[in-house]
Amino acid sequence: MTATLVTDASPPAAAGAGKTRRPRRRGPVVALLFVLPALLLLGALVVYPVLFSVGRSFFDASGTRFVGGGNYTEMFRDPATLKAVRNTAIWVVVAPALLTGLGLILAVLVEKVRWATAFKLLLFMPMAVSFLAAGIIFRLAYDEDPDKGVLNAAVVSVHDVFQGTSSYPTARARDGQGMTKEADGAYRTTANVSPGDTVALGLVGVLPGDLPDGARPAHGAASREAGPDELRGVVYLDFTPGGGGEQGRVDRQESGLPEMTVEAVRDGRTAGTTTTASDGSFHFAGLEPGSYAVRLPAANFAPPYEGISWLGPALVTPAIIGAYLWIWTGFAMVLIGAGLSTLPRDALEAARMDGANEWQIFRRITVPLLAPVLTVVFVTLVINVMKVFDLVYIIAPGPVQEDATVLATQMWLVSFGGGNDQGLGSALGVLLLLLVIPAMVFNVRRFRSSQR
């Protein structure tokens, strides 16, 4: 009876075990079915292009002749490619370091600000702007014309406040009217004069509408006689509005040129300097007897200061990096700020109670505790700057495109931007991939270690 009961009870138990094993076997299959679309998409958009580019890099421009490592050899012989490698190295060294430092400083300072959320929002807003739009914005901001470029407008305004600017950049003397142009652009009287003489220095090339405010007619000043120990004269616009008048003579309707520097020169040395009045008149008093030349220095005719050539060969790369900082500073600040909010406050308060100042707390406690976050931010930015393309392509003008090129733009230019050598372009793409992979592996390992 007992044996029968044991035998009858065993089959249901076995059946139950089989039922529990079937769902466990289905689990990986169901998971694979859910992941399969993502794997197919990843393979089509990432794996296949990578493998195709690797294979294409071993063929010539037409893709019909196998050249082996010829493209890789040519890549490091091409001056444009070497310049792209150099510029990419500058980007990798400068941009992530500056962004991480700025993000750290701003994240620490924002904690002291009352409106911290609004401040973070303002700094993070450029992240919402596409690289294309940001490139157009900074292309206009960096424009060399002060009437268009806001940066040069500010630079020119500051320069003119401290250095001043010429009021007569287009003025010139008439040929054969008693004045000679010197090599540096200055004008001087052809014939020497002496104390007691009066000279009239006529200039042309200035539109009546461009005359300084307060300019008065020069006829009265030209008719004044000089004293025995003074040299007197007038600088005037030798042009009568509406026509008429006589060249080389101060007519009644002709205007004086105020605020112009005039020098009395003797034996190659400046004996006196003065500035013309509103009617263009000037005089030198107390001159020693002898012959002098009256000189109008070149500073009177200097062209206006045009600012800095931000997009010239020397500054184009730093200028583009500046635009990149504007976009990504908010990103670095927010990530570092998130790490800062998780720091143990008791350690900071204990340091303050022990007498540490804020700089010591920042250097010895905050930065070491934030080291993992700073590393992740830095490596992420390194990966990002290696792939920068939009800003360089949009901001750099055509003549300096080669001076600003990086690996990503060089790859595009070689393949599609006129080079039409997709073999060499694929080799550049493989080089870029090899440079990015170590940083990606390092970042993944950092994420895994932080999860543990």
From TrEMBL:
Residues 85-443 form the ABC transmembrane type-1 domain. Residues 1-21 are annotated as: Disordered. It is a multi-pass membrane protein. One of its GO terms (cellular component) is plasma membrane. The chain crosses the membrane at residues 29-51, 89-109, 121-142, 319-340, 361-383, 423-444. InterPro entries: Ig-like_fold (IPR013783), MetI-like (IPR000515), MetI-like_sf (IPR035906), Sdr_B (IPR033764), UgpAE/MalFG_permease (IPR050809). It holds the Pfam family BPD_transp_1. One of its GO terms (biological process) is carbohydrate metabolic process. Keywords: Cell membrane, Membrane, Secreted, Signal, Transmembrane, Transmembrane helix, Transport. It is found in: Cell membrane; Secreted. Signal peptide: none annotated. Belongs to the binding-protein-dependent transport system permease family. This is Sugar ABC transporter permease. It comes from Streptomyces chromofuscus. The lineage of its organism: Bacteria, Bacillati, Actinomycetota, Actinomycetes, Kitasatosporales.
